[in-house]
Design a protein that fits this description.
Layout (H helix, E strand, L loop, with lengths): L1 E5 L2 E3 L5 E8 L8 E6 L6 E6 L6 E3 L7 E6 L4 E6 L8 E9 L2 E4 L3 E5 L2
Parallel strand pairs: 2-11
Antiparallel strand pairs: 1-3, 3-8, 4-5, 4-9, 5-6, 7-8, 9-10, 9-11
């Protein structure tokens, strides 16, 4: 299993970023995919999850209405569109899949929201 995130960076408050996670090594369309984040000094937290077909999503309360998770099963990629970013969204963002009772994480991509 390999998960490779991209798309992070430095953005001003109110700005947008789109994260991508390219997956390989497993049957992508058979698994729920998630994004987590971890800010300095804080525990890793679930940001959003998406069902295998993409028809069901859920979000942390802190990002509802601002972030959108989506997936392209043909491209084996999951996305996180982040709008109206706030300084408190600053964190390392991780792609995650639980497969056969094992947790798999990407290497993470840094998102920094600052003026």
């Amino acid at each position: 299993v390999q998960l490779v995130e991209s798309g992070g960076g430095l953005v001003q408050p109110g700005g947008s970023l789109r994260l991508s996670c390219a997956a390989s090594g497993f049957t992508f369309n058979a698994y729920v995919m998630s994004w987590y984040r971890q800010a300095p000094g804080k525990e890793r937290e679930l940001v959003a999850s998406i069902s295998t077909g993409g028809g069901s999503t859920n979000y942390a309360d802190s990002v509802k209405g601002r972030f959108t998770i989506s997936r392209d099963n043909a491209k084996k990629t999951v996305y996180l569109q982040m709008n109206d970013l706030k300084p408190e969204d600053t964190a390392v963002y991780y792609c995650y899949v639980r497969r056969r009772a094992n947790d798999h994480w990407g290497q993470g991509t840094q998102v920094t929201v600052s003026s």
